[in-house]
């Protein structure tokens, strides 16, 4: 069984809709799934306050993500709204605190994929996903993009090879069926790659990991 952790932040519910469909798809495929939200910040920037409040109520029982959720997972998916072409600050804050598990290599070789929602067709969905890819490189993770070959990506509302991106046009919970189909595909592909890694990845004796002594210089408890 493949363990999948989905970490997300959502503002008007569109990312959360994608998360729910991804989790359902993964469970139907036989995966063990943890859905986790990035912890809220003290003073978040909110435009659609009624939608944000409704989403807070709808996700009140969803636990905040922690580092164990990443270590536990074989596959990780991260969903974010676009904020000035970047992932949401809540997601970046969570990423920024992954050093204690990333530096010792505990996130290496995990299949990791990202998706995003923006207000307009060119609102920065791809830029936000690629920004997350930068962090995944530091983790040593295996980035799972959507590519361009799957039939679902040729539907009118899809097309980005980097990851699923929705266009909200400032409408709450407005994900289209094309985008739902895309996140289903992205989820299955991420699980597929995670399973291949689990079955086929063997230790390479010529690769030496960072020493405990070196890790202690970062203040890490090893």
For the termini, the CA-CA separation is 29 Å
Kindly provide the radius of gyration, computed on alpha-carbon positions and rounded to a whole number of angstroms. Answer: 17 Å
Assigned CATH class? Alpha Beta
Shape, per Cα inertia axes? globular
Give the rounded overall mean pLDDT. Answer: 93
Instruction: Please name the CATH architecture.
Output: 3-Layer(aba) Sandwich
User: In CATH, what is the homologous superfamily?
Assistant: Flavodoxin domain
Please work out how many helical segments DSSP would assign.
8
The overall number of domains is 1
Order of helices and strands: EHEHHEEHHEHEEHH
SS-derived structural category: alpha/beta
Largest sheet: 7 strands, mixed
pLDDT < 50 stretches: none
- Please indicate the percent range of residues in DSSP E strands (runs of 2 or more): 15-25%
Question: According to CATH, what is the topology?
Answer: Rossmann fold
The helix content is 25-40%
Beta strands, count: 7
**What's the oligomerization state?**
single chain
InterPro entries: Flavodoxin/NO_synth (IPR008254), Flavoprotein-like_sf (IPR029039), FMN_Rdtase-like_dom (IPR005025)
Pfam families: FMN_red
Protein name: NAD(P)H dehydrogenase
GO molecular function: FMN binding; NAD(P)H dehydrogenase (quinone) activity
């Amino acid at each position: 069984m493949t363990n999948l952790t989905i970490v997300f932040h959502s503002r008007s519910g569109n990312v959360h809709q994608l998360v729910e469909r991804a989790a359902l798809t993964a469970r139907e495929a036989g995966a063990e799934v943890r859905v986790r939200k990035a912890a809220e910040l003290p003073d978040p920037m909110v435009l659609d306050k009624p939608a944000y409040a409704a989403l807070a109520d709808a996700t009140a029982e969803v636990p905040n993500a922690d580092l164990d959720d990443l270590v536990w997972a074989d596959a990780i998916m991260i969903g974010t709204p676009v904020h000035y072409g970047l992932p949401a600050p809540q997601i970046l804050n969570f990423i920024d605190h992954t050093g204690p598990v990333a530096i010792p290599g505990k996130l290496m070789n995990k299949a990791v994929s990202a998706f995003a929602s923006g207000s307009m067709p060119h609102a920065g969905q791809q830029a936000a996903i690629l920004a997350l890819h930068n962090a995944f490189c530091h983790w040593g993770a295996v980035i799972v993009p959507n590519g361009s070959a799957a039939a679902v990506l040729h539907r009118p509302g899809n097309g980005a090879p980097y990851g699923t991106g929705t266009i909200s046009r400032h409408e709450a919970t407005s994900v289209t069926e094309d985008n739902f189909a895309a996140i289903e595909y992205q989820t299955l592909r991420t699980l597929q790659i995670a399973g291949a890694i689990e079955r086929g990845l063997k230790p390479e004796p010529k690769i030496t990991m960072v020493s405990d002594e070196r890790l202690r210089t970062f203040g890490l408890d090893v």
